C-alpha cells in the first residue's frame, strides 16, 4: 500500500501549555509509522529539534528498508542475504533503480548499456595530471566525479527523464573506471581501458591490477567476492551520504555534482571512511595481547577513540552485511592461501571479546560492514586508501536510485532545515574606537 495514499485513521496530539495541535500519523508498508509535522511551525510557531535526525524521517522511500533491532536489510523487499547469495551487482543495480528484478532480456539490455558507457572522455585522463601522485584517492574521486558534469552536458537536465536515465547509467558505468584511474595514477602505472567482454567486477579488477606488458587473468573467486562486496554496499536507506545527495539534488543541481557531494560525505571516518580506519585500528592494535588496552580506551568517555567498524546508528543488532562480509573474507583468504593473517586474528579476537563486554552489550554495539571489509580488500591487493573508493563505486547506484526517487516525487521541494538559535540577540554596531 502506498503510505501517502493509505487511509490514516490515527492522529498524534501535541500539547504545549494550554494549546494543543493534531497531526496525521502515516503508516508505511513495514517499519515505524511517522507523524506528519509539516504544518507544526505554521500552527504552533515552533520547530522540532532533532540533531543527527535520530527520530526524523526525511522522506518517503520504496527503495531500501532496515530493521536495526532484527538485523534486517531489504533492497526493494528482497533480503540482502538472498541477493548476495543468488544475484549479482548489475542485477542489484537494475532492482534498486527500477524496483523489480530484471527479466533475462531486461538484464541483457541493461548490461549492454552499462558496458557501452564504461569509458570516460579521453580528456579526463589529463584531469588527473593536476593531482599530486600522493593525493588520497577519495580527493581525486570527489574532483573527477564532479568534473563529469563538464564532459556530459547532454545528461545534466534533471527535468528530462531520458537525461536522468543516461546520467544514471553513465555514473554506474564510469565510477569503476575513474576509481581504477585514481589508483593507477597513485602508483605511477598507466591507465588500463575497460574491456567490454568482462563482467562489471572483473572489468574493475583488471583495470586496477593489469599492466600493458602482459595478459591479466581475473581470478573468478576474487571477482565474485568483489561483486558481492558491491552488492552489500549498494544502498542503505537515508544514511549521511545518501541524505547529502538528496539535499544537493533538491536544489536542482546536476546528478554528477550530487554524486560528488555524496563521495565527499562518504569519505568521513564515521561513515564510509570507517573501513580504512578499521584496518588502521587493527594494525595499531597489532597483536591480540593489546586488545584489552584498546577496549579500555573505547569505553573511556574522555578518550575520543572509537572501535572502528563497530556500532551503527540503526543496527542495534548484528549488521547483516557484516556476517556476509566475514564469510567473503574467509573465502578470499582461503583462495589466496593466506592462512594466518595477523590482522584477521586480531579482528576475530576483538569481536569475540567485545561481544562479551557489558559496555558493548549495553550500548548494543556490534561489528558493522566495515569491520571485515578492510581485511578482505587488503588481501585482494588494494591499499587502505582505496577502501572508501570501492565503497563509493558500490554506493553510487544507491545514491542515484534515491536521487531519482526524490526528483520524481511530486511533493519534492528544496530541503531547507531550520534551527534552534542560541546566539546573540539583536544589538547595534560598535565602532572599533569604542571596542574594549
Ligand atoms: C557506515 O548510516 C548508515 O547506514 C551507514 C552505513 C551505510 O551503509 O551507509 O551503514 C555505513 O557508516 C557504518 C558505520 C561505520 N562507522 C564506524 O564503524 C565508526 C565507529 N562507529 C561509531 O562512530 C558510531 O557507532 C556510529 C557513528 C557508526 C554511530 O553513531 P551513533 O548512532 O550516533 O551512536 P553514538 O555515537 O551516539 O553512540 C552511542 C553510544 C555512545 O556512548 P554514550 O554517549 O551513549 O555513552 O555508543 C558509543 C558512544 O560513545 N559508541 C561507541 C562506538 N560507537 C558508539 N563506543 C566505542 N566504539 C564505537 N565504535
Proportion in β-strands: 5-15%
Structural class, by secondary structure, is mainly alpha
What characteristic shape results from the CA principal axes? Answer: globular
First CA to last CA: what distance?
A: 65 Å
Instruction: Describe the main β-sheet briefly.
Output: 3 strands, antiparallel
- The tally of beta strands, per DSSP, is 6
Assembly state: single chain
Helicity level:
40-55%
Secondary-structure element sequence? Answer: EEEHEEEHHHHHHHHHHHHHHHHH
Q: Are there runs of 5+ residues with pLDDT below 50, and where? A: 1-6
Tell me the number of helical segments per DSSP (H or I, 4 or more residues long).
Answer: 18
Major β-sheet strand ordering: 1-2-3
pLDDT averaged over residues:
94
Fold and architecture overview:
This protein is mostly helical and 436 residues long. Helices cover 49% and strands 6% of the residues. α6 packs antiparallel against α11 and α14 runs parallel beside α17. The chain is globular and about 80 Å long. The protein binds s-citryldethia Coenzyme A. The site of s-citryldethia Coenzyme A has 20 residues, from loops.
Name its key features.
436 residues, disordered N terminus, single chain, three-stranded antiparallel sheet, mainly alpha, 6 strands, 18 helices, 6% strand, binds s-citryldethia Coenzyme A
In short:
With 436 residues, this protein is mainly alpha-helical. It has helices at residues 40-44, 80-86, 89-98, 104-115, 124-128, 137-151, 161-186, 200-209, 220-232, 240-250, 255-266, 274-285, 291-299, 320-335, 342-354, 358-362, 370-379, 387-407; strands at residues 11-16, 19-26, 34-35, 64-67, 72-75, 78-79.
Amino acid at each position: 500500500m502506498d503510505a501517502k495514499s493509505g487511509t490514516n485513521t490515527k492522529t498524534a496530539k501535541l500539547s504545549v501549555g494550554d494549546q494543543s495541535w493534531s497531526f496525521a500519523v502515516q503508516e508505511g508498508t513495514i517499519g515505524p509509522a511517522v507523524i506528519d509535522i509539516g504544518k507544526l511551525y505554521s500552527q504552533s510557531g515552533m520547530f522540532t529539534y532533532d540533531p543527527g535526525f535520530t527520530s526524523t524521517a526525511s522522506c518517503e522511500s520504496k527503495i531500501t528498508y532496515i530493521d536495526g533491532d532484527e538485523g534486517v536489510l531489504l533492497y526493494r523487499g528482497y533480503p540482502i542475504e538472498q541477493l548476495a547469495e543468488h544475484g549479482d551487482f548489475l542485477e542489484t543495480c537494475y532492482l534498486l533503480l527500477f524496483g523489480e528484478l530484471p527479466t533475462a532480456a531486461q538484464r541483457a539490455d541493461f548490461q549492454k548499456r552499462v558496458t557501452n558507457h564504461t569509458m570516460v572522455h579521453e580528456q579526463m585522463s589529463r584531469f588527473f595530471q593536476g593531482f599530486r601522485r600522493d593525493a588520497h584517492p577519495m580527493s581525486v574521486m570527489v574532483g573527477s566525479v564532479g568534473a563529469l558534469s563538464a564532459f556530459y552536458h547532454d545528461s545534466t537536465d534533471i527535468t528530462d527523464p531520458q537525461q536522468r536515465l543516461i546520467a544514471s547509467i553513465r555514473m554506474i558505468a564510469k565510477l569503476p573506471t575513474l576509481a581504477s584511474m585514481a589508483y593507477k595514477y597513485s602508483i605511477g602505472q598507466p591507465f588500463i581501458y575497460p574491456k567490454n567482454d568482462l563482467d562489471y567486477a572483473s572489468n574493475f579488477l583488471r583495470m586496477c591490477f593489469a599492466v600493458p606488458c602482459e595478459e591479466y587473468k581475473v581470478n573468478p573467486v576474487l571477482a565474485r567476492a568483489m561483486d558481492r562486496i558491491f552488492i552489500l554496499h549498494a544502498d542503505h536507506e537515508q544514511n549521511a551520504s545518501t541524505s547529502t545527495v538528496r539535499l544537493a539534488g533538491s536544489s536542482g543541481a546536476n546528478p554528477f555534482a550530487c554524486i560528488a557531494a555524496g563521495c565527499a560525505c562518504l569519505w568521513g571516518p564515521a561513515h564510509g571512511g570507517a573501513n580504512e580506519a578499521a584496518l588502521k585500528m587493527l594494525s595499531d592494535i597489532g597483536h591480540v595481547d593489546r586488545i584489552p588496552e584498546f577496549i579500555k580506551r573505547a569505553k573511556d568517555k574522555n578518550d575520543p577513540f572509537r572501535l572502528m567498524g563497530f556500532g551503527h546508528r540503526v543496527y542495534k543488532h548484528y549488521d547483516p552485511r557484516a556476517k556476509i562480509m566475514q564469510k567473503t573474507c574467509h573465502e578470499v583468504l582461503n583462495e589466496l592461501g593466506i592462512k594466518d593473517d595477523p590482522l584477521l586474528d586480531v579482528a576475530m579476537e576483538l569481536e569475540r571479546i567485545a561481544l562479551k563486554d557489558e559496555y558493548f552489550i549495553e550500548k548494543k554495539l556490534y561489528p558493522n560492514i566495515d569491520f571485515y571489509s578492510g581485511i578482505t580488500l587488503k588481501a585482494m591487493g588494494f591499499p587502505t586508501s582505496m577502501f572508501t573508493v570501492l565503497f563509493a563505486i558500490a554506493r553510487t547506484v544507491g545514491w542515484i536510485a534515491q536521487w531519482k526517487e526524490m526528483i520524481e516525487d511530486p511533493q519534492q521541494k528544496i530541503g531547507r532545515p531550520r534551527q534552534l538559535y542560541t546566539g546573540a540577540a539583536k544589538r547595534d554596531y560598535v565602532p572599533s574606537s569604542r571596542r574594549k
